[in-house]
Design brief:
It is built from one helix and nine strands. It is mainly beta. It starts with a helix and ends with a strand.
Length: 206
């Protein structure tokens, strides 16, 4: 994660340093669309029915962005975020059942308010965001009523959980005309483990 973080922010830094101030626009305001890719961290900290496998897994993530910046200091964004899929495995015997693995994936739609620091630089923005996310977590738990080497029929239990949670993030972006390239960290506060992601994105202002 540290190598990926350093690489993403290095891209932003090089873009900011190499941009020509003649070609750059002064804080272009308006409606924008974008997309991003990066790395997520999915975790399960609980010990309930689906928490026998505590995991902390890094996966590929992606997102789509639609936003508006009516004035330079503030804006709003709507995002769809796919955090990827994590796998937990354990040898755990509980209440007559032998648990041998699970799989969990997380997706969210989020609405953010965005605030930009007044740096006075036409080519660079530092911003923070806060809002609300609708998180969907799908979990498949695999267990069997006996332990190897005995032969028994395995069972899969699927759970589809929805929750509304606080979401927040920080980032930096460099701009060239209507194009913005950004690196940002986002996190959703959720029971059992907060999914988060570090991504690099590109957006075009119309």
């Amino acid at each position: 994660m540290n190598r990926i973080s350093a690489g993403i922010f290095a891209i932003i830094g090089l873009g900011a340093c190499g941009a020509s101030t003649v070609a750059l626009a002064d804080d272009p305001a308006g409606f924008y669309l974008g997309a991003g890719v990066g790395e997520s961290n999915l975790r399960n900290d609980g010990y309930g029915y689906n928490g026998y496998y505590g995991y902390n897994d890094h996966q590929s993530a992606w997102k789509l962005i639609a936003g508006i910046r009516p004035i330079p200091p503030v804006g709003a964004e709507f995002e769809y975020i796919d955090f990827g899929s994590a796998n937990g495995r354990a040898n755990y015997f509980y209440s007559g059942n032998y648990f041998n693995g699970n799989n969990s994936d997380a997706k969210a739609t989020a609405l953010f308010g965005v605030g930009y620091l007044p740096l006075g630089l036409p080519f660079l923005d530092v911003f923070g965001k806060a809002g609300v996310a609708r998180l969907q977590s799908n979990t498949a738990t695999y267990y069997s009523p006996c332990q190897a080497p005995a032969t028994c029929v395995g069972t899969v239990v699927n759970n589809d959980n929805w929750s509304t949670n606080f979401a927040y993030g920080v980032g930096v972006q460099t701009k060239w005309l209507g194009l913005a390239v950004r690196a940002e960290y986002e996190r959703i506060s959720a029971a059992g483990g907060d999914p988060d992601a570090l991504m690099v994105s590109a957006a075009w202002t119309f």
